[in-house]
Amino acid sequence: MTELSVLLLGGLLCGVLAGGSAQFGRLCTFAAIEDAVVAGDFRRARSFGLALATAVLFTQALAHFKFLDLAVNPYNQALIELAGLIIGASLFGLGMSLVGTCGFGLLMRSGTGDMRAFVSAGVLGIAAAAATGGVLSPLRLWIAQLVSVRTDALGWHVVKATVRSNVQLDAEPLLATGVVIALCIVIFGSSRFRRRWKLVMAGLGLGTAVTSGWLVTGVLADPFGFHRLESLTFVGPLARVILLTMGETISEATFAVVTVFGVVLGSFLIAWKRDELRWEAFDDQREMKRHLTGATLMGFGGVLAKGCTIGQGLSASSALAATAPVAIICMVLGARLGLYYLIEGRTLFELLGNRAC
After folding, report:
1. At what angle do helices 285-305 and 115-133 cross, to 10 degrees?
2. 156-171 per-position pLDDT tens digit
3. Cα separation, 85 vs 249, whole angstroms
4. CA nearest 311: which of 237, 203, 243, 205?
5. Backbone angles phi, psi at 280, to 5 degrees
6. What is the DSSP letter of 231?
7. Looking at the 3D structure of the chain, how many domains does it have?
8. Radius of gyration for the alpha carbons in the chain, expressed in angstroms and rounded
9. Angle between helices 115-133 and 137-144 (to 10 degrees)
10. DSSP type of residue 11
């Protein structure tokens, strides 16, 4: 098979596995946060934790046995744009609460016939394109340059050298093992979660899809080809899909673009099998305004944070990127603030003012 064929077929299968798994278990990032915050139900959050543990375990195993070189992954950067990461992830979380799901969830819902999600995904892609190289790019660059931190200053290289000299082992496998064990203890400590086998299967499938992305672009495709090492993420690729529909020539973004269509297809297949295909539209102007505003925030924030709940939340985490924990925390906080607004009808400033009183 040619390199292009590997990327096209591999990207499609990774997207189908991710979208199908999430649709099978009704797994949604925002729903997991909402369940935890509003109802105290952490089962869907545990499913995402299982996806994270699966992605970390298999991705780091590939790297440890020299099948995969994660040193060149897009999240391994010498300079972390900390302000952009924090502000972007927070805006993404806020936008997610307004829409009711993330970019990945919009693609899933589009596959089931939800036209609200289809329109919102288009707006997200347009906003992401505008933030990447369009009218919003100057604002994005200004925010990103406010505060930056060199990864050397975090001391991770010192930790790795110390571990290697004392126990003759690489630090990455030890850290990955610790993360996976800790997550599994928390995840499977709940009998309520263990009984929800669909959520268990969804978490395993989504985590495997992330690892498969690294496998396709880093092992199966020609490592000296024109493509880059990457896994699942859905903000930048949605922007690329918008540009492709307007006539741009497909290039190195082949894998990422095809995963977008794979998620829609995977979700469609599961919904079709379950007879869950339903045409849905906006109820009124207010709902449409909320969705489009949220999609715009997710598009801009996702580019600023350099990833979404899947990109920074799972793909970056599986590569043990330093940006991942910060992004996850900020997205959750942004989504929680959005929930306060939706449930209580109060803005952030009103909440802070009431607490100060």
Report:
1. 40
2. 555 555 655 665 567 7
3. 30
4. 237
5. -135, 145
6. -
7. 1
8. 20
9. 70
10. H
CA atoms within 13 A on the CB side of 3: 15
Beta bridge partners of 280: 114
One-letter amino acid of 4: L
d(CA 236, CA 115) in angstroms, rounded, equals 21
Residue 28, number of CB atoms within 10 A of its CB: 24
Question: How many Cβ atoms sit within 10 Å of the Cβ of residue 156?
Answer: 15
Which residue's entry shows tokens 């985590």? 207
Its domain, for residue 264, covers 3-356
pLDDT tens string 321-337: 889 999 999 999 999 99
Per-residue burial over 200-227, b if 16 or more Cβ lie within 10 Å, else e, is bbbbbbbbbbbbbbbbbbbeebeeeeeb
Per the CB < 8 A criterion, the answer to whether 121 and 99 are in contact is: no
Give yes or no for residue 349 having a pLDDT over 80: no
Residues 6 or more apart in contact with residue 103 via CB below 8 angstroms: 121, 124, 234, 235, 238, 298, 302, 308, 309, 310
